[in-house]
Write a structure and sequence with these properties.
This protein is mainly beta and 80 residues long. A hairpin with a 4-residue loop joins strand 5 and strand 6.
C-alpha cells in the first residue's frame, strides 16, 4: 500500500548498530511511501511501522526507509 505524508516532521537518525547519531532527518510533506509488512524492525518494536520511499534524483535512483510509531503514522500519513 502507498501513503502520502500530509505534514513535515523529523525523525532521529541511527547508525548500523541501532545507536542514536544525535541528528535528525526531515520527512517532507507530499512525499510518497510504501508500507513494509515485514515483521522485523531495526529500531522499533512490534507497534512500529516501517515505510520505504523511492524517488529519482538528477543523479540516481534513491531510497530511504523509516520506522515510526503508529501514532506518528496515523497523524502524518494518508493512504493514496
Amino acid at each position: 500500500m502507498r501513503y502520502k505524508c500530509v505534514k513535515d516532521f523529523y525523525i532521529e537518525n541511527y547508525d548500523d548498530d541501532g545507536c542514536s547519531k544525535d541528528t535528525y532527518s526531515r520527512i517532507p510533506k507530499d512525499s510518497i511511501w510504501e508500507l513494509d509488512e515485514e515483521p522485523y524492525r531495526f529500531i522499533g518494536d512490534d507497534d512500529s511501522i516501517r515505510l520505504y520511499r523511492i524517488w529519482k534524483s538528477k543523479k540516481a535512483k534513491t531510497s530511504q526507509w523509516i520506522e515510526i510509531s503508529k501514532e506518528t503514522f496515523i497523524d502524518c500519513f494518508q493512504m493514496i
